[in-house]
Amino acid sequence: MTTGLILRLSGLLQSYGERGVFHHRDTAPFPTRSALIGMFAAAQGRSREEALTPYPQLTGTPDHRDLTFTLRIDRPGTLYRDLHTVGGGRPPEERLHTAQGGHRPEAASTLISHRDYLVGAVFTAAVQGPDTLITHIADTLNQPRYAPFLGRRTCVPDEPLVVARTDDPLTELRERVPLSLSTPPRPDTESVPVTFVFEHPPPGDSTAYPHRESAGEPVDFTTAGRRHLPRPLWFTTEELPARLYAGPRPIDALAAYMHGTHP
């Protein structure tokens, strides 16, 4: 049986690397499949070595490949680049290594790197998969072994993270879950355009080719063997009811939704 989970991914900072190397850690403009699966594994207390293994304790032995993600981009946020320095001010025996195995001289022992973040972004995610796995994910996110983070450990999520369990999360995203918009809709507006990101062609879309590929399909999470495969993505812009606007205090609208009193 397939069921769904709705997550709200919001925080001061978020960062979802796609092609980053040491000197430049990039971020995708939205959460990646890899980041979400990694967050689930951390909440479950799984190590990097076992993060992508199936779940033998659950009926049907499901694994991460059974999950499907759909994103609603409530607020895209602003790209912010942070400057980092690594290796400076260390004693000679602790300076950065050279290719020959020695240590760099003091003048060349500081490396500069850039790390990109999304500031003020809000995403609402629908996670669909086998009922036993969705239940396990929801339970462990609510009582995590290791604290969840939004791409990087410095990126702490706002509350609530888990918003709802539902059999039809896509309808909930379109019709019921409050919208945390950057600016309020005009008083005479009945609908607002909102971008969705799908891992499969959206219902009613006969487009044969994806709109984008993201290096977000995790193959190996270990430090030495980290590897990802490209994943096709489709985008739509949908008109959602303006009444979903969460207002200047989104927590109030979210609490009302979670208690079944949001209009």
Describe it for me?
- This protein is of the alpha+beta class and 263 residues long.
- Helices cover 15% and strands 32% of the residues.
- It contains 4 helices and 11 strands, in the order βββαββββαβαβββα.
- The strands form 2 sheets. It has a 7-stranded antiparallel sheet, sandwiched between helices. Strands 2, 3, 5 and 6 form a 4-stranded mixed sheet that branches.
- A hairpin with a 6-residue loop joins strand 10 and strand 11 (227-241).
- The longest helix has 12 residues, at 131-142.
- The chain is globular and about 65 Å long.
What's the SSE blueprint?
Blueprint: E1 2-10, E2 13-14, E3 24-25, H1 33-43, E4 68-75, E5 78-86, E6 111-119, E7 122-130, H2 131-142, E8 162-166, H3 169-175, E9 191-198, E10 212-220, E11 227-241, H4 250-258
Parallel strand pairs: 3-6
Antiparallel strand pairs: 1-7, 1-8, 2-6, 4-7, 4-9, 5-6, 9-11, 10-11
Question: How are the strands ordered across the major sheet?
Answer: 8-1-7-4-9-11-10
Shape: globular
Q: What order do the helices and strands follow?
A: EEEHEEEEHEHEEEH
Largest sheet entry: 7 strands, antiparallel
Mean pLDDT: 89
Strand content: 25-35%
**Residue ranges: pLDDT <50 for 5 or more in a row?**
none
Q: In percent, how helical is the residue content?
A: 10-25%
Round the Cα radius of gyration to an integer and report it.
Answer: 20 Å
The number of distinct helices, counting runs of at least 4 residues, comes to 4
Topology, number of strands: 11
- End-to-end Cα distance: 29 Å
Structural class: alpha+beta
Q: What oligomeric state best describes the polypeptide chains here?
A: single chain
